Amino acid sequence: MAPPSHFYNNNGAPQDAASYLHAGPGNAPPQDSCLLDADEFRRQGHQVIDFIADYYGRMDDYPVHPSVNPGFLRRQLPDKAPSRPESSDAFGAALRDVRDLILPGMTHWQSARHFAHFPASSNTVGALGEALTAGINSVPFTWAASPAATELEMVVVDWLGKALHLPESLMFCGGGGGTLLGTTCEAILCALVAARDRKLVDIGSGRIGDLVVYCSDQTHFAFRKAAHIAGIHRDNCREIATYRDDMFALSPAELQAAMQADVDAGLVPLFLCATVGTTQTTAVDPIRGLCAVAATHGVWVHVDAAYAGSALVCPEFRHLIDGAEAVDSFSMNAHKWLLANNDCCALWVKKPALLVAALGTEQEYILKDAASEGHDVVDYKDWSVTLTRRFRALKLWLVLRCYGVEGLRDHIRGHVRMAASFEDMVKADPRFQVVAKRQFALVCFRLRAPEELGGPKAANALNRRLLEEVNAACSGPYMSSANVGGVYMLRCAIGSTLTEERHVREAWTVVQNVASSLLTKMEMHEDY
Amino acid sequence: MAPPSHFYNNNGAPQDAASYLHAGPGNAPPQDSCLLDADEFRRQGHQVIDFIADYYGRMDDYPVHPSVNPGFLRRQLPDKAPSRPESSDAFGAALRDVRDLILPGMTHWQSARHFAHFPASSNTVGALGEALTAGINSVPFTWAASPAATELEMVVVDWLGKALHLPESLMFCGGGGGTLLGTTCEAILCALVAARDRKLVDIGSGRIGDLVVYCSDQTHFAFRKAAHIAGIHRDNCREIATYRDDMFALSPAELQAAMQADVDAGLVPLFLCATVGTTQTTAVDPIRGLCAVAATHGVWVHVDAAYAGSALVCPEFRHLIDGAEAVDSFSMNAHKWLLANNDCCALWVKKPALLVAALGTEQEYILKDAASEGHDVVDYKDWSVTLTRRFRALKLWLVLRCYGVEGLRDHIRGHVRMAASFEDMVKADPRFQVVAKRQFALVCFRLRAPEELGGPKAANALNRRLLEEVNAACSGPYMSSANVGGVYMLRCAIGSTLTEERHVREAWTVVQNVASSLLTKMEMHEDY
């Protein structure tokens, strides 16, 4: 059939692929090796470095969170890509647009006043490690596809595991092994599929609908998402209730009751996702007790330490994973609080062979080469959802080299200390309460509702309004919220690399001032 | 219980988290905001840019593939991270180690002589776009978490879709929509889970074991991997045989027969993964015919154009996806051949609501904010496996801006032209044959086995040896292989940004010389 009209050239004659091949020399476009020219890279590269350095230097001038409405940027950009670069300095023009159009619409996660969610801790070495990786641009999906990249990953996951005081059984040096993925959801999904496949061998592959997975009502949604993707029935995900009296930790006794009930109902317990440092309040599930329960049911235990895993670099936090020798897999996001820049999720497993059995390729046609055959070589494509992968090990290795384990401890302790200060300030103001005991560098707090205000719903509305007005203050802090057991609270997560004591004090002053103003309005019955 | 001994400080007294909080001012370590100091970033950043530029300048000096044995790097590195940085210029020392230890052990995907696998096309703008993203280090998991990052992604997937001549129904402007993920396996997995969930609503969630997915025996393993992860029974993945007479394309008639057989057996056809540009030989499945078959069975059609999708920027290739209006989803890796640097996989879907239904979070506690409620806002965390994500749109937008659609066409056509030259050279040497018709910039070829050599097995051995010796040539090309229908062949994939005509000619000369030497040895019965 004839191609549509715009596939014709200017003469109206149809032009097919072959006609481009036999164009005379006069028609041949320039070869594009200039697109990776070393001198051009140097020129543009120095521009970019100065651009980013200027951004860091100006960070304080930006509101952390932009005051923009949906569609603000889409409306400003053309609806299709240019046919040719607009000017001879297209790169410079684009950088100016990044500065003038894009940065003002970003949420500035590196701002010293970013206290929302969890940190995405950047630093010069991690950021430049990413730049190096992008410059080298290798695809280390097998050992052969980039031997040094694979081996550095093997080295650095052991380095990190030792720095975090993980059991040796999870590291290469102890018969296990680790890999660097993008995110926790990927890590859990990989572990879950390995566990699922092992279990289905035992009970028969037709019984996928009988498999049950366990977590608490505080577990991050990433787990439910992973379980759903892996084909676990939505009704077979047990979210076990937690209580404030237990600091929102999952109770082994409740887990045992839930598993036994499932067994009695003819179902098959499969997988437990325990959390060290939950997203809402940084609760820590008791690993040893949970593993003991899981073991009686042949259940795979994964520990999700996405946020708090970084704190394990400090020995004073190691007791939080006592009993971790019994877990099957463990993951943490080094990009959250360990300076590894987004993205960098480390996953360790006790039995890599189970990962490979679940995720490995059977077709080896283009992937094997003589060097890897018959040797103890890791092909990381078989350890993850993805086949293509980035050389993430480089930045993590640079961070560990350049700061050292003690440097990372200083980094964590500095934030924990600032969070303790913030907590003390909250406690010192009787209008406020700390809602969940602080364990790391997250403080969960709320304004106590005046008695005359009414019930819990009104108290939540008050605190929601408090957060909105705090976040609306132009040069103020940016925080987020949690809702645990029906109680709405503000979350102040300290962890941005640029955050100093003064930012924490200033943030608290803003919260106090907004609260005073809100309470005054309430007394005057203006708003309630 | 007592912590192990190394958690005690030098005095032997146990030290807990609290003791670090109340250290006197003299004991307080420095605040770590200096880790993101603008001036330090500038200093280290310029070092890194020069380092990468020097690497590009020196690229030709490296063998494409290192001659190293498993363990070569692990043996050279310490078994744990340093406690403190080794020197005051730890970063400079680490860069020297990258140069002296790591680069010599890399496979240099950016080498002009890298013809293996598929290209990972880098360029100054794409690489520096990654560096910018790493410097900004935002986490745009929701619109609110970085409005400009989300909106730029929405803009750029439409730009790219238009540039590739995709149907508007797959773009935001036509009621569909796209996102930027890491890899094709993720893209297929997302589409598959959406399709699975929709089908299970119709047939009952207990019937996951009855779902059947379809592909050809040429489809990339990523599809089988995704299907397995999603809980599709391994026995329910139909790999339909292809034939050289059909140029290894999937036949609609064979697909229809397979689907009907499954229906007759009480199974439920779910999903077809069609490929435009297979990994082994760049075969193109006939979209229109396959979609017609799929429609009669209510089957979701995904098109995996991981490699060849980039070629669609040229109108002369558009006919290869005729009928794409009927597909449900489409993905391609802009990091392979469209200068977007690893990683950047674009996924478009006709009905984003189905993706969100399958992958969306139910808990909105910390994720929503007032700005996004009630508006037509995309929260990309609900479009993918991962929640955390990188700001990939920035580099792709920079590439499209700085080269323009015509610039990308020149880039693709240059490689296609060089591949055609290579193909002509192969054809001109009667000792060789082109095994699969060249469609893009991959040439699959082999040495014809002399008659006296024996059967196909010996011919394969000869070509395997040819590849090994070609790849062992120190400053020679690096190619990979395929095995289709029992026929082993060499793959010469042209697509590195630095590759020029002369590299292609030189590569062919190496192949010819190695072949001559091999054939001479054979004649002398030295080796056979």
TrEMBL record, chains A, B:
<protein>
    <submittedName>
        <fullName>Tyrosine/DOPA decarboxylase 2</fullName>
    </submittedName>
</protein>
<feature type="region of interest" description="Disordered">
    <location>
        <begin position="70"/>
        <end position="89"/>
    </location>
</feature>
<dbReference type="InterPro" id="IPR015424">
    <property type="entry name" value="PyrdxlP-dep_Trfase"/>
</dbReference>
<keyword id="KW-0663">Pyridoxal phosphate</keyword>
<dbReference type="GO" id="GO:0046189">
    <property type="term" value="P:phenol-containing compound biosynthetic process"/>
</dbReference>
<keyword id="KW-0210">Decarboxylase</keyword>
<dbReference type="GO" id="GO:1901162">
    <property type="term" value="P:primary amino compound biosynthetic process"/>
</dbReference>
<feature type="region of interest" description="Disordered">
    <location>
        <begin position="1"/>
        <end position="26"/>
    </location>
</feature>
<dbReference type="GO" id="GO:0019752">
    <property type="term" value="P:carboxylic acid metabolic process"/>
</dbReference>
<dbReference type="InterPro" id="IPR015421">
    <property type="entry name" value="PyrdxlP-dep_Trfase_major"/>
</dbReference>
<dbReference type="InterPro" id="IPR002129">
    <property type="entry name" value="PyrdxlP-dep_de-COase"/>
</dbReference>
<dbReference type="GO" id="GO:0016831">
    <property type="term" value="F:carboxy-lyase activity"/>
</dbReference>
<feature type="compositionally biased region" description="Basic and acidic residues">
    <location>
        <begin position="76"/>
        <end position="87"/>
    </location>
</feature>
<comment type="similarity">
    <text>Belongs to the group II decarboxylase family.</text>
</comment>
<dbReference type="Pfam" id="PF00282">
    <property type="entry name" value="Pyridoxal_deC"/>
</dbReference>
<dbReference type="GO" id="GO:0030170">
    <property type="term" value="F:pyridoxal phosphate binding"/>
</dbReference>
<dbReference type="GO" id="GO:0006520">
    <property type="term" value="P:amino acid metabolic process"/>
</dbReference>
<dbReference type="InterPro" id="IPR010977">
    <property type="entry name" value="Aromatic_deC"/>
</dbReference>
<keyword id="KW-0456">Lyase</keyword>
<feature type="modified residue" description="N6-(pyridoxal phosphate)lysine">
    <location>
        <position position="336"/>
    </location>
</feature>
<dbReference type="InterPro" id="IPR015422">
    <property type="entry name" value="PyrdxlP-dep_Trfase_small"/>
</dbReference>
